[in-house]
Amino acid sequence: MSMASMRFLLRRLALFAVALVVISVLVFVALRILPGDVASVMAGHDSPPERVAALRMQLGLDRPLTQQYVDWAVALLHGNFGVSMLTGRTISEQVGARALVTFPLIVMGLAVALLIGIPLGCASCLAKSERVRGLFHLVAIIGGSIPALWGGLLLILLLGKGIGLVGLFPSQGFPQDGWAAFPQAVASLALPALAVGIIVGAGLMRYTRAALEELMTSSAIDMAMSCGMTRTRAMLTVGLRLAMPQLVSVIGLTFAEMITGVMVIENLFDLPGLGEGLITDVGNRDLIAVQGELFMLAAFFLTIGLAVDLLHRALDPRLNDGEGRGL
Amino acid sequence: MTVLKSIWAHAQGRYALIVLSAWVLIAFVSLLWTPHSLWATDGYHVWAAPSADHWLGTDGTGADVFSWLMAGSRTNLLIVVLTIGVSAVIGLLLIAAMVSSAAMLSGVTVVAVDALISIPTVLIALILAVPMDASIAVIVIACGLGYGLNLARVARPQALLAARSDYAEAARAAGVSPLRVLVSHIVPNALPTMSVQLSLSAGTAVLAESGLTYLGIGVPSGVPSWGHSLATSVKFINVYPLTVLWPGLIVTCVVVALNLFGDALREAADPVANPLLRQAQVRQAQPMEAAVVQPQSEQVVSQPPQPKQVRP
Hints:
The complex is a heterodimer of chains A (327) and B (312).
Chain A: H1 3-32, H2 38-43, H3 49-58, H4 65-77, H5 91-126, H6 130-145, H7 148-159, H8 182-215, H9 219-226, H10 231-261, H11 263-268, H12 274-284, H13 287-315
Helix pairs in contact in A: 1-13, 5-6, 5-8, 5-10, 6-8, 7-8, 8-10, 9-10, 10-13, 12-13
Chain B: H1 2-9, H2 11-32, H3 65-98, H4 103-116, H5 121-132, H6 136-163, H7 166-173, H8 178-214, H9 226-234, H10 245-268, H11 275-293, H12 297-301
Helix pairs in contact in B: 1-2, 1-10, 2-3, 2-10, 3-6, 3-8, 3-9, 4-6, 5-6, 6-8, 7-8, 8-9, 8-10, 9-10
């Protein structure tokens, strides 16, 4: 590893650490300083003040805020995210169980999105007739404009077992046995993944088109064509490779965004995933759980951002200028 | 005006303008008149099919679906306008900080924007919903914050280019205050990019409204909105699937219109791509040039920037 990449890595890691601290403060502040502190919200709207005071003491909320924050942060560093007030299970356990639904859903959705987005994006840039290109672009815009809730509903009406025109896939719930019942589990994720995939795929299609269009007039493509490739072939081999770093960044960030982006879909299809769990906890005012989960999610988003940046750099050596600074 | 004319010249831009003006028009009409009262329930005609009396049928309480959708358009318009306003203000403040000459301030802002931008809007909305409950403010603040960060990031290169340009330098050397330089040199340069981004954000805000309202942290129940209409019909999808079509269709059409508007605006607001705009700017600039002859430094610096150069 060269000196320059080393310096970049250190700089990026420092930014990551600072951001992590900032986010933890934000989550902490949002749940403490805003009107109605944890204890009074938890105790309910018209509970007597003594009860609130007792709860506050029990939760350690009567200590100074900085003390509370430091305690929480130290616990976080030990990997201790706290215990849910309602279920009594640790937050990590709870999140782990939910992630087993959400992550497969996102991976399947992303697979659908890639299958739709990349080929159609290439087509919408490379099609011979201008009219066809315009049509592809319009399709991408319409696909990205569909509310997730509505898209999911239309799919249920089309393919849902029991309701749809063609009853193919179950449209509600996740098997009780989880992944032990593998075929059922995959089947129950099929429709939600399709709904997510179509919407995300439409966005990906626009990115692919924009990235390729930018390269269309680049000298790399001219070079490839003067070596005897057709424009289409040059775009698909050289162009796609050049667009790869940019696309990988977009795909990585999309992956992170989908964790909360699939919230509505999880709710609609009644899947016990991360987003659905977070909404339930907010609804139940399980604020200890909310605090832990929000931080965990935010930390995850920052980690993905870090990974994407590093990957982008690894894929695009042009970014390593002499000083190791991003362009 | 020239920009609007150029947008109208494209078929897609025309669709966008028609849908958007219909939206605004219907929102205002719904303040004065809807075919039926929102609260007129009718136990004998629940889930009625579309008819001459109820154009899109009735919902589970016998209320007129069409009237609710009409009334919903004003809530959505309000949300979009407020969100755009909040994100424009946040975006401008961030841009001002990013291009400021204080290295400390600009450095910290760039880092903060990069770090915060990966936090999705829904997460912010959830944090806000804990103390605030479901309200329009949750949508507006969460979306305004998220889109404002986005705006700053997208418009930063343009703003930076203008801030480092010779004419901004000349203005500063002539003793023009930083605020004035920002308003008369930097913002006009970033404006085309910003308005395109804001138009796309408006579409996202409409989608966010329907999502957040469905999740119970957006528009409170009882307030008409498209997301509300969509969410109430979802519960009965097994029994009355057709009612769910309308709100989704409206949201999709409007969001498509906002996206196409953004696309058309991108082309129309770019003097390099739009000859009509170039001509108008030249015509506008001529009387100004006459003023330059008089040695009044104030007027020289307030002259609008020349049409952007193609390459930095």
